[in-house]
């Protein structure tokens, strides 16, 4: 273990514990470690309970992960057997960010020089032209104004419908030497919320992923702040690939990024992996989260349930668009769907681009919770 | 560091627990430790827990034990700096300008400044405790503003300059966890999760808080409430509701209802959700009878 020179040996144990937690994806800041040590000193410590309570209060594990935290604590300070959760380490879900896309960029540029490839590109863009009739262009233009808005902290000056901007009015009055000109108004700005699309690329969704990526491309082009991730057995961020204006080029780039096309599904673990990366989960906060998946989870759905609950605590609106829901006989009857239904805001038809664009454009309008709609149906 | 008198009061977690009990608040060891650490480390205390477990009451008790005034900032969606920090009294400023006529008047004087909770606490950190209640209801931007306040304990007023706290004020934040707070905010605080108490402690709390409830009643209520909480309800009853239930059942019993019947008729103060009521109704008789036994 690395140990700073001027740290007393007794204190090294506490530092080591904090590092152990960090290795298990607990977010712990240096200042928290400092206050942990201060707290232990303040409390005596007279017993192990003091150390445990100091750790709980200063390292602040989230209540969902309290059990895991306790297990690590026991293992580290009491020398119990390694906690069972450690077994998860091996098949920890890999997160891939497309920041490493630079090399591919060069490769692509080189490829484009070949005459063969450029003619292929031309062909593709012809098809693109035809398919613009599917309404994605319109979707892109409408998106910013259709996303639900939140009131910003900042105000804008306005000529009508606002509250009196006393601060500005007063300085106006002072500069006019006490004369009262027409009052100035201000109003709080409305900012469109962020849009987060999570696309299932597993084998069972094979028929739909191409359409979904086109939709995602339009969303990234249209919205101010949109993020797109794909998940199957891994999680991949494809937003910056989709920022390329030309659709076919963007989709080709995205396709090279994703490694787990048409593979299995590990929906729960991948979504949890998403939430454990702070800058990703920060994006989900207050956003409209749309998950494009059939919700068919392999094995136990406990992790999926936890992930969905965490998503719904962060997101402004959590929606699941399932291609299966297009069928009128569809009922959310699978164990996984049944478990996550109470935390979903919407469970909608995702079988066609048309229905999806309609749904995303209607996100700003309030709708009853998914559970109450599907209860009525069944 | 925190001020001297607070440190004196907070000599040890046990001292805090004893003083909390004196002000009618029963804290478990880990809450007392968290309060002790918050006071001694000079950090804000973040209390999270389900609705009705006594987060706000804990803040009131802390203010009482330090013998300080509690300044409460209730958060809501759309709260802004004008509600939390300060505002100028523009009407009075205008009047003052009119009155002054040819004389000069300082319209950014103290008498035109309306101090909102955060500024109130900055001005007298030794006499006040700040409670930021239900911070999960506010917007993210407000959370960021609060973050700035909590790290430096200062407020900049463009017309007046920066106002800094003479000593570190004691700040308590509460959250119902309807949404997750920013990591940066959690990191700066001493954290404590208040859970539901066990039956014995809950009975003690009911005895302490309710008017004139017999000990047997308190124990029965605590047992029954534990049993009810174990069920998957939309809104599990909090401690406040349990106290109310004990009170209501006692009143009904004095009005002539026999025991199990009094509990059943007073269920409306415990469970306030139609679906929960219909889910629990068939079992309620058995739960109450077992709790009374």
TrEMBL record, chain A:
- The protein depicted here goes by the name VWA containing CoxE family protein
Q: Which domain of life is it from?
A: Bacteria
- State the organism of origin: Mesorhizobium plurifarium
Gene3D superfamilies tied to this protein: von Willebrand factor, type A domain
For this protein, the record's SUPFAM superfamilies field holds:
vWA-like
Q: Write out the ranges of the annotated region (Disordered).
A: 80-117
Q: Where is the composition biased (Basic and acidic residues)?
A: 93-115
Q: Which Pfam families match?
A: VWA_CoxE
Automatic annotation (TrEMBL), chain B:
GO molecular function annotation: ATP binding; ATP hydrolysis activity
Name of the protein: ATPase
Under Pfam families, the record lists: AAA
Query: Which CDD domains does this entry report, sorted A to Z?
Result: AAA
InterPro entries from the UniProt entry: AAA+_ATPase (IPR003593), ATPase_AAA_core (IPR003959), CbbQ/NirQ/NorQ/GpvN (IPR050764), P-loop_NTPase (IPR027417)
Q: Where is the AAA+ ATPase domain?
A: 41-195
The record's listing under SUPFAM superfamilies reads: P-loop containing nucleoside triphosphate hydrolases
